[in-house]
Design goal:
This protein is of the alpha/beta class. The protein has helices at 21-35, 65-74, 147-154, 172-186, and strands spanning 6-13, 39-41, 77-84, 92-99, 102-108, 128-131, 134-140, 160-165, 189-194, 211-213, 219-222, 229-236. It has one domain: Carbon-nitrogen hydrolase (Nitrilase/N-carbamoyl-D-aminoacid amidohydrolase), CATH 3.60.110.10. Helix 4 links the parallel strand 8 and strand 9. The longest helix is centred in the first third of the chain and has 15 residues, at 21-35.
Amino acid sequence: MQVLETLGVAVAQPLCVPHDVTANAASHAAAVRAAGARLVVFPELSLTGYELDALAISVDDDRLSPLVQACAETDALALVGAPLAGDGGRACIAMLIADGGGIRVAYRKIWLGAEEAQRFVPGDEPAVLEVDGWRLGLAICRDTGIARHVAETAALGIDAFVAGTVMAPQERAIQDDRARRIAAEHDIWVAVASFAGATGGGYNETLGCSGIWGPGGELVTQLGPQTGAVARAALTAVHPHADA
């Protein structure tokens, strides 16, 4: 496989309709088409909203077909958030990857919040997604603030750290500081897609302010709090890989 020295990445803040996977899959598909990027990253639980009682979905859910179609048309991959049906009747908070061939699981959130743990089970281990030779470490919200998670993910040998989050407006400094620190300490790119608009879990407002930080911690691009926005950047290899 030819390893690409540049990877186009976008972070998206689609309008989310609580519990409405059909409507949200359509808005995700529109964001993928608008992004013009190889990889489009969406917030935590973006397909249902941060609704901890939302019904879990499966990777073969027909309601996700518009998203698969958009990825096929644009040769893009999308990382989306959803409650994923699991064994034994308990779901997990998942990051799913969509491409032109369908949907599969990329990562299951490990570090759950107290309320989340009442319904969801944690994932088992950090995960890396390989895209065009780039190694992308994955995280969901609270994971980004757990030093152990960041260190164990970075130890897998990654070029970028990619996360979907849900944060309150007053948590902007926390989100930005975490991203800068991860980028600087590990000399990697960081992309964070943060929920925008109202959602469940007591979030009458959410932060938005999705962004992409370069190695060293400099901010490359960042959105405001508005829904429907997309920001993109061309990630360039810091430590070029040999062709595989």
